[in-house]
Write a structure and sequence with these properties.
Largest sheet: 4 strands, antiparallel
Shape: elongated
Strand order of the largest sheet: 1-2-3-4
Order of helices and strands: HEEEEEEEE
Strand content: 35-45%
Structural class: mainly beta
Number of strands: 8
Distance between the termini: 86 Å
Radius of gyration: 19 Å
Helix content: under 10%
């Protein structure tokens, strides 16, 4: 009886992201939801991808590297920020459209001397 050889196939999302999708930038942060993936890069861009790695939306969000991404449990809201600008950007995903709201964060100065 002949034994059929087993084949092992692995797809590397890391190499796909680096080589095929983002060859000219570096990803600074990633957040995953059951509906989609959100990536932030070192240039302040935010990318919304499906789970196959296809870009659904690209947003010029910040002036420097995206340092934080938060997705609510329903996937309806995405918030991003960067330590290089004072904005927290909240995006609402509604029927494939992203609406953006900017919230400026103003640091309080210390009153202690």
């Amino acid at each position: 009886e002949e034994v059929e050889p087993s084949l092992k196939y692995e797809r590397s999302i890391k190499s796909d992201l680096r080589d095929r999708i983002f060859p000219h930038t570096k990803i600074s942060i990633i957040s995953v939801h059951e509906k989609f993936i959100v990536l932030g890069d070192i240039n302040g861009q935010v990318f919304l991808l499906d789970h196959s790695g296809n870009i659904i939306r690209q947003i010029n969000a910040h002036r420097g590297p995206v340092t934080c991404i938060s997705i609510d449990t329903t996937g309806e809201y995405i918030a991003t920020c960067s330590r290089y600008d004072p904005n927290v950007i909240i995006k609402r995903t509604l029927q494939g459209i992203i609406r953006t709201r900017f919230i400026r964060v103003v640091p309080r100065t210390s009153v202690l001397r």
